[in-house]
Amino acid sequence: MENENKEKKTMTEDELNQTILDTTRKHLDEFAEKAIEDKIGELAEGMKANVDKKVKDAILDLKPKEEELEAEERGKEFEKPEEYLDAIIKAKDIGRAKREVDERLTFVTSSGEFKTAGHMVEGDDSQGGFLVAPVYKADIKMIALENSVVRTHGATVIPPIKTDSINIPYIDDTTHASTVFGGVKASWLGEKGDKDDAATKPKFGQLGLTPHKLAGVTYLSHELRADSAIALVPLIKRMFGSAWGYFEDLAFLDGSGAGQPLGIQNCSCLKTVYRNTANRVLFEDLREMYSCMLPSSHPYCVWVINPSVLPDLIGMTSGDVVPSAATNPIWINRDMGAQNPIPGRIFGRPFIISEKMPGLGTQGDVGYFDMRYYLIFDRQPMTIDFSSHVAFVTDEDCWRFVLRVAGQCWPQSVFTPRNAAAPVTSMSPFVVLDDATSS
Question: Are 55 and 89 in a shared domain?
């Protein structure tokens, strides 16, 4: 005994730790197995009870009614299959003045409807139709809104600042007839010439941007939110977020400036070009618009057109006349047919098709813009707030969508080049086609 105790006392620390670890693992394995067995048993009992209930409910639903049993018995009175089929043909022949319905074939419900004996069909709810549940695809189709025209094509965006308005200083440079930068002029002087006689200075201006609020709400009943197969909350956020971007962009292009941003079409620096022919867009119109753009702006400009302009653009010819059968198109290659995509550029600059532009024949149906000269002040980017208390008594959720933004062109007038000559007597970073003709 003393020798055994001495052997136990001489067990190394590693051996002792391994013994403890093995014993602990054994007990944990036994505990886990017992827990799994108990859980499986619990789940099995629950599943069995659920299955039993569904089976009982199904039996009750499928239990034939007394009148159906009677009809089934009458259906067995047909002596031959041919006799049964002939009775069905006569009953289904809607071309007859009066259908012949064999009493062995049907029973009549309390509402006077005929029910075919022994046949379950999904076309009739009570004879099986209720067993076929309608299926709806958990998806919704909607027309996608066009992308932003102004904001995403180079507009100058001022990030949020905690103020109700901001003032932007700028150099008021409207003409180069004799000076630049609104009054700066360099003079050639001879030896000992008096430089004070050549003193000049630039002219500055200040532009105020006051944010305007674009807001709206929508309500969602709790029942619709809970029962809809469509995930409505993400859908609402996506739809209203896109809608607010659409209406914001519409104001940047055509806003009146009263309670909303001042749009390009209404800015004082807008340059209008007479069109060649009323209600048409010809090659002469485009080349003159291109000429009236600030020379430094061409690398940054985009064309923006209404969809109704596309037919004139596709059929455009080199002559300043309405296209005819004898003329050749210049924007597309007629030899290639209609199988290729239309060109994505006009005079090397990309064009955008936008329903926000006025229709064909209206001033601004075609625009050539350098968006860098349009200022956007994002006082409060799109904010989505939710409340379950606004319509608490009617069990509705309320969603509120708000953004605060200011926008306008910073040039205050068109620009006069140094050597102005018709047809380019003035220039601007914003050029549109007029609705009027030169004649």
Answer: no
Q: How many domains does the chain have?
A: 3
| CA–CA gap between residue 367 and residue 304 (Å, rounded) | 5
Amino acid found at 279: N
Residues 272, 418 within the same domain: yes
Rounded Cα gap, residues 319 and 323, in angstroms: 8
The span from the CA of 231 to the CA of 227, in Å, is 10
pLDDT of 110 > 50? The answer is no
The answer to whether residues 210 and 335 belong to one domain is: yes
> How far apart (Å, rounded) are the C-alpha atoms in residues 417 and 409?
19
228 domain-assigned: yes
Q: Could you tell me if residue 136 is inside a domain? A: no
**Residue 144 burial by CB count (10 A; 0-12/13-18/19+): exposed, middle or buried?**
exposed
pLDDT tens column, 126-142: 555 555 555 555 555 55
Contact 374, 249 (CB under 8 A): no
**CA-to-CA distance for 165 and 379, rounded, in angstroms?**
8
Q: Indicate whether 227 belongs to any domain.
A: yes
Q: Are 91 and 108 in contact (CB under 8 A)?
A: no
pLDDT at 430 > cutoff 70: yes
For residue 363, what are the domain limits? 143-185+202-439
Q: Could you report the per-residue pLDDT of 334-380, keeping only the tens digit for each?
A: 666 677 788 889 999 999 999 999 999 999 999 999 999 999 999 98
Instruction: Find the mean pLDDT for residues 90-103.
Output: 58
pLDDT class for 192, splitting at 50, 70, 90?
Answer: confident
Based on the fold, state whether residues 266 and 314 are members of the same structural domain: yes
- Residue 323 falls within a domain, yes or no? yes
Report the C-alpha gap between 344 and 171 in whole angstroms.
35
Mean pLDDT on 276-299: 95
Cis amide leading into 261 (omega within 30): no
Give 3-state DSSP helix, strand, coil % of the chain, rounded to 5.
35, 25, 40
Grouping H, G, I as helix, E, B as strand and the rest as coil, residue 144 is coil
Could you give the percent of the chain with pLDDT greater than 70?
Answer: 67
Q: What does the alpha-carbon distance between residue 202 and residue 415 come to, in Å, rounded to a whole number?
A: 16
φ/ψ of 409, rounded to 5, equals -75, 140
Whether residue 18 sits in one domain with residue 106: no
- CB atoms under 10 Å from CB of 288, counted, come to 18
- What type of residue is 353? I
